[in-house]
Design goal:
The chain is mostly helical. It contains 10 helices and no strands. The chain has one domain.
Length: about 220
């Protein structure tokens, strides 16, 4: 079981590190800033999850592979050919960034639910769902705040609500269909909602006027 969690979180780490590093490059940060933003995006949600669950010190500090992976990916993004491709107006680059961010969200959300289950919180649907969502969106919120942006989850497309739907479904199905089926279902729901919302520009209702025209991930 721990190996499955590690595999999911390593893939999510790579996906989120890319999105964080690209935001930093677009903000004109130096190599240190790019690395820190990529690292924060990749491990931030997991650190918040572990603190909420009392799983201390957080896994990130006990298993350096996550931080080292995020740092390595961020440095690759900073390489001139890579950053020019990822920050340009290339259609394929935009699709890659949207997919990587959506993949990271889906993977971290269901892995957050799994960690909560393994730590003995199977009886609390609310806690399982909350932990799943915060694991999925926490790193992105920290990323946007550090980059001086309104957190993406509050203004663009269907994001946190996709994580909420997937986490709730994963948690509710766990005892009925088993871990694997529940995680696959939650993962698929999040990924499909995110990709469709990015493609069709779905957004939740806004209070006044149009949403800020931030460049999409």
């Amino acid at each position: 079981m721990p190996s499955l969690i590690m595999a999911l979180e390593l893939i999510g780490t790579i996906a989120f590190a890319i999105s964080g590093a690209v935001i930093a490059v677009r903000k004109g940060m130096d190599v240190f800033g790019v690395t820190i933003l990529g690292l924060t995006t990749a491990v931030g949600g997991g650190v918040i999850r572990d603190l909420v669950l009392g799983n201390t010190p957080p896994v990130t500090f006990r298993e350096p592979v996550y931080a080292l992976t995020a740092i390595g990916v961020s440095l690759i993004v900073f390489l001139k050919p890579v950053r020019h491709f990822l920050t340009g107006n290339h259609r394929h680059a935009t699709m890659l960034l949207q997919f990587s961010d959506s993949l990271g969200l889906a993977l971290f959300t269901v892995s957050g639910v799994q960690v909560a289950y393994l730590l003995g919180h199977a009886e609390s649907l609310f806690l399982l769902t909350f932990v799943g969502v915060i694991t999925g969106v926490g790193g992105g919120v920290l990323r946007d705040m550090m980059a001086g942006k309104t957190p993406y989850i509050f203004v663009k497309h269907v994001y946190a609500s996709a994580a909420l739907a997937g986490a709730l479904l994963c948690s509710a199905l766990w005892s009925r269909v088993g871990q694997t089926a529940a995680m696959l279902t939650g993962f698929a729901v999040i990924l499909i909602i995110r990709l469709l919302s990015a493609h069709y520009h779905w957004s939740l209702p806004h209070a006044e006027g149009d949403p800020p025209a931030d460049k999409p991930l």
